[in-house]
């Protein structure tokens, strides 16, 4: 699994960080980011739920 956030689409709603805080965080401007070293989802079962919670669908999950 590979997780990315399209920074051009993200509006900083924070749903990703609230849903799966072990994988997602927010930068200093409030926009979503994938935590360093967690680009593979780190086995967190809430990653897909976080992607679905994104109101602008900025999160992409690609299965390897």
What is the rounded distance between the termini?
5 Å
Topology as a string of helices (H) and strands (E): EHEEHE
* Main pleated sheet: 2 strands, antiparallel
Helix content: 10-25%
Average pLDDT works out at 96
Q: How many DSSP H or I helices?
A: 2
The main sheet orders its strands as 1-4
Number of strands: 4
Beta content:
15-25%
Question: What are the low-pLDDT stretches, counting only 5+ consecutive residues below 50?
Answer: none
Q: What is the structural class?
A: alpha+beta
Structure description:
With 64 residues, the protein is α+β, with helices and mostly antiparallel strands. Helices cover 19% and strands 22% of the residues. It has helices spanning 15-19, 47-53, and strands at 2-5, 24-26, 32-34, 59-62. It has a two-stranded antiparallel ribbon. The model has no long low-confidence stretch (mean pLDDT 96).
Can you lay out the helices and strands and say which pair or pack?
Blueprint: E1 2-5, H1 15-19, E2 24-26, E3 32-34, H2 47-53, E4 59-62
Antiparallel strand pairs: 1-4, 2-3
Quick structural gist:
By secondary structure, this protein is of the alpha+beta class. Helix content is 19%, strand content 22%.
List keywords for this structure.
alpha+beta; two-stranded antiparallel ribbon; 19% helix; 22% strand; globular
């Amino acid at each position: 699994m590979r997780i990315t956030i399209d920074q051009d689409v993200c509006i900083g709603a924070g749903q990703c960080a609230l849903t799966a805080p072990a994988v997602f965080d927010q930068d200093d401007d409030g926009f979503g980011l994938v935590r360093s070293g967690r680009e593979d989802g780190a086995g967190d079962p809430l990653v897909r739920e976080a992607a679905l919670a994104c109101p602008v669908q900025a999160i992409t999950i690609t299965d390897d």
